[in-house]
Structure to design on (168 residues):
């Protein structure tokens, strides 16, 4: 099995024709093989940057794509690492922003004015207590999410290194 990173928007049929050794043969079977190896792709709409798996089959040119252990895998690892890193950073930034908002709300709920009003109104006191409990629960959940994102990022990096080593 080889990898091919698509450089421009195309279709599976167009890529398949470029990969075939001979244009006189029927393209139905090779295209079926390509489609079976790539269920993650829309056959009529393959975007630039998509990774196409090329089966080791006699009807496909051997020079049509790089071997799995070549530069294509390094490029794929870089793209995946960048995507996971950026996605994880977006989540971590959102958690930090939400944490800052929670601090501001906690400060407002703890102000002398709110305390005085809540002391005289049991319904308001109940709502302030409930809001404080939700903020604490959200902070705990945010800490768990932060740990999971960091673990995911480290795991992806380690798995990509392992995959590269296996395919060399």
């Amino acid at each position: 099995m080889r990898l091919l990173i698509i450089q421009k928007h195309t279709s599976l049929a167009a890529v398949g024709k470029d990969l075939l050794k001979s244009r006189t043969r029927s393209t139905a079977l090779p295209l079926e093989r390509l489609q079976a190896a790539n269920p993650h792709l829309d056959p009529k709409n393959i975007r630039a940057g998509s990774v196409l798996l090329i089966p080791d089959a006699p009807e496909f040119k051997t020079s049509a794509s790089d071997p799995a252990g070549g530069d294509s895998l390094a490029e794929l690892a870089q793209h995946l690492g960048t995507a996971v890193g950026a996605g994880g950073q977006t989540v971590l930034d959102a958690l930090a922003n939400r944490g800052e908002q929670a601090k501001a709300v906690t400060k407002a709920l703890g102000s002398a004015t709110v305390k005085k009003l809540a002391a005289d109104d049991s319904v308001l006191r109940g709502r302030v207590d409930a809001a404080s409990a939700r903020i604490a629960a959200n902070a705990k959940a945010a800490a768990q999410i932060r740990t999971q994102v960091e673990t995911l990022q480290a795991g992806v990096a380690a798995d990509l290194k392992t995959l590269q080593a296996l395919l060399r």
Notes: The chain has two domains: 2-67, 71-166. The longest helix spans residues 122-166. The first strand starts at residue 2 and ends at 5. The helical segments are 12-19, 28-37, 71-109, 112-120, 122-166.
